[in-house]
Amino acid sequence: MRQIRFFDTTLRDGEQAPGFAMKTEEKIALALQLERLGVDIIEAGFPISSPGDFEAVQKIASVLTKSAITGLSRANRKDIERAWEALKMAVKPRLHIVIATSDIHLVHKLRKSREEVLEIAVDAVSFAKNLTTDVEFSAEDAIRSDPDYLCKVFKAVIDAGAITVNIPDTVGYTTPDEFYERVSYVIKNVPNIDKAAVSVHCHNDLGLAVANSLAAVRAGATQIECTVNGIGERAGNAALEEIVMMLNVRKDIFNDVLHGINTKEIYRTSRLLTSITGIECQPNKAVVGRNAFSHESGIHQDGVLKNPFTYEIMTPESVGFPGNKIVLGKHSGRHAFTTRLKSLGYEFEQEKINKLFEEFKELADKKKEVFDEDLDVLVNKTFVQDFPIAYSLGYIFFSSGNTHIPTATVTLADSDGVERTEASTGDGPVDAAFRALEKITGIPSKLSSYKISALTEGKDAQGEVILTVEFAGEEPMSGKGYSTDVVVASVHAYIAALNRYINRHNHGGTQGDRGCFKGV
Ligand code: KIV
Ligand code: ZN
């Protein structure tokens, strides 16, 4: 049997895509969840690209205990030294070096000859090998590279110490047949390939990233680079969950491979990512989309009731899709709460559990049925509150209706506990509340984006509001808020953005660009 290693690049290639930027605390939460999922290698960033990326890689390196961690470097000593600085405290650090090998990149981007690139690659890998044993080399745009030149580069970098060589389809250009041939060619024509693992990294520009990755596995690749929900540059990367489930569901085809992914953590990982980024998957997304396991047509429903296998090739439970089970209610005690959190894979120190329990009690008072997904929301909220709070919500009252002028009264407490109350009318209760907040703070604001979604099931579902606000005409600040009431969630989100704005002014603007404030 061959062990397939999953290399997740959600935090690097995924985060590179517009709209997917994450704060350090959010990256840590996601990295820990990826570890729980059973990912073998986590690419946590590109350390030289920014101080924020460096800090995130360094912090994640210090919390992971099972997964290996890597950060990307271009093939030069400065990049590698910076990456090593961020990675060196990790239990399992890996250096990952990339340089393009296709003529189109050599001529137009690098302006170097094939011989020069070969020399640079070897020098970089040798340098990295002096720092650590686990070195991966990626030949960017490998699929459009001359196959014999690619093999020559791979042979040389393996001789220099690379123990993984990666074949990226950087531009999502290949087909399963062609990629199968390319991977087979490399395995056959690199004489020292037995000293390295063969990896693939497929982009999805023509919708074939998953199919191409699977073709590579059949050809002998033993590492797959992918992302949660398939996020990534342009049309994204190969989706981790789709590859894993294909390997599981079609064991008859992939009968010689094993992997360490705990599929029951797939749905939770996907939800954590969408909750952090505020970007949902399309409802029909394979494996994790909202409709992935729902049967609408009468014929299908009839079949599934008689035997689920008529229309279900995998069970929702196998990917941890919530069955809407009521797990806890307002009478549940601390023990039941902690046990349930543990069974969901969350273990925290006592102080954090106490805080979560308080929030759970508040929620259970408002919501008769508390589902596993509600607990996920509670946990995610506490993970992302990581900046000083200038204002917090004391009180809110609002009224609206088809014959009423919407009004809202809001009380805000500042960091010294001093409260101020203002009332306002508006175009709706949310607008009225925001105008009252403006009066309290004296900071004019303009809402530039607003998105609301239900995070859990049922009429009393928890809502999540993600918005961006321009305060005093400056660059938009974003904030997230949660509540079973959409107006309250909106006010929490506004205050989160406001706190971020104030924090940036007070501290010279070093924080990330999203805020989150507790709801319930
Ligand atoms: O797409 C690509 O080629 C990459 C490399 C850094 C592996 O992301
Ligand atoms: Zn990529």
Describe this structure in words.
The structure is a single chain. The chain is an alpha/beta fold and 520 residues long. It contains 17 helices and 18 strands. It has helices spanning 10-14, 24-37, 51-63, 77-87, 103-110, 114-129, 147-160, 176-189, 209-219, 240-249, 266-277, 298-306, 334-343, 350-366, 372-383, 429-441, 486-507; strands at residues 2-8, 41-43, 68-74, 93-100, 135-140, 164-169, 197-202, 223-226, 257-259, 326-328, 370-371, 391-399, 407-414, 419-425, 445-454, 463-471, 477-483, 514-516. An eight-stranded parallel barrel has the order 1-2-3-4-5-6-7-8, surrounded by seven helices. A four-stranded mixed sheet has the order 15-16-17-18. Strand 2, helix 3 and strand 3 (68-74) form a beta-alpha-beta unit. Helix 3 (51-63) packs across helix 4 (77-87) and helix 16 (429-441) packs parallel to helix 17. The longest helix is centred in the C-terminal third of the chain and has 22 residues, at 486-507. Residues 508-520 have low confidence and may be disordered. The chain binds 3-methyl-2-oxobutanoic acid and zinc ion (ZN).
Task: Describe what is shown at a glance.
This protein has 520 residues and is α/β, with parallel strands linked by helices.
Topology:
Elements (H helix, E strand, L loop, with lengths): L1 E7 L1 H5 L9 H14 L3 E3 L7 H13 L4 E7 L2 H11 L5 E8 L2 H8 L3 H16 L5 E6 L6 H14 L3 E6 L6 H14 L7 E6 L6 H11 L3 E4 L13 H10 L7 E3 L6 H12 L20 H9 L19 E3 L5 H10 L6 H17 L3 E2 H12 L7 E9 L7 E8 L4 E7 L3 H13 L3 E10 L8 E9 L5 E7 L2 H22 L6 E3 L4
Parallel strand pairs: 1-2, 1-8, 1-9, 2-3, 3-4, 4-5, 5-6, 6-7, 7-8, 17-18
Antiparallel strand pairs: 10-11, 12-13, 13-14, 15-16, 16-17
Helix pairs in contact: 2-3, 2-11, 3-4, 6-7, 7-8, 8-9, 9-10, 11-15, 16-17
Bound molecules: 3-methyl-2-oxobutanoic acid and zinc ion.
3-methyl-2-oxobutanoic acid (KIV) binds next to strand 5 and strand 6.
